[in-house]
């Protein structure tokens, strides 16, 4: 089981024989006051033709449904777009090669507990490196989110809501569902484990980990669904869901169900 939530909006595909990717896919940054750290992003062209890409900054946030969005710079709460500085705005990448660019995060005085921005790497089609001019169309784009947390800020108010489960059968896994709501001013990556035992003997029926893959932004509510394959033998089952967040915070939820 993996709750696979990739932070970068990676629209990888082929266009004129070119494929675009980056590393790393996101940054967590917490510089001390007065520091302006610089980071590097590697851009890869695994295709067979040259690529011309443009670089620019936007926001990183979510919509009313809680889904990740990338608004224009300065259009969302907790925007850090104006803090991000790109020394260059365009670059060329040869076929089968890679190139690097850097950005600088300059945190102003009195920053909030957290703030967010995105560096976009976008392919420019129709702009032949040997022929400047002609029509320009955009296709592949990758968003590299930047998550800033003030050094003294730690998430502490995560609400656990609406737990439910679907019982397993011969053809379907156990599915555990719940909402997490971040009632704090800083982001968090929930981690944890799911453990299910069978009968009075507490025989292990199944277990898995909830890995650090899904970010919960301030005031955001997300639905988590965890499938767990277990053999649906008749009897009583007991489960333990444990979630960790922040430095030392945790949520423990016990549940049980019967298979008849």
Describe what you observe in this structure.
- With 260 residues, this protein is mainly β.
- It folds into two domains: 9-149, Sandwich (Immunoglobulin-like), CATH 2.60.40; 158-259, Immunoglobulins (Immunoglobulin-like, Sandwich).
- Helices cover 0% and strands 51% of the residues.
- The protein has strands at 9-10, 20-23, 27-29, 38-45, 51-58, 61-62, 68-69, 84-85, 90-93, 97-105, 114-125, 137-149, 158-166, 174-182, 191-198, 203-210, 221-228, 235-245, 249-259.
- A hairpin with a 5-residue loop joins β6 and β7 (68-69).
- Residues 1-18 have low confidence and may be disordered.
Structural class of the helix and strand makeup?
mainly beta
- In angstroms, what separates the terminal alpha carbons? 25 Å
CATH superfamily of the largest domain: Immunoglobulins
What general outline do the C-alpha atoms trace?
A: globular
**Weakly predicted, low-confidence segments:** 1-18
CATH architecture of the largest domain: Sandwich
User: Could you say how many structural domains there are in total?
Assistant: 2
Query: Could you describe the largest sheet, including whether it forms a barrel?
Result: 6 strands, mixed
Q: Remind me, CATH topology of the largest domain?
A: Immunoglobulin-like
Number of helices: 0
Helix content: under 10%
Percentage of residues in DSSP E strands? over 45%
Highest-level CATH class of the largest domain:
Mainly Beta
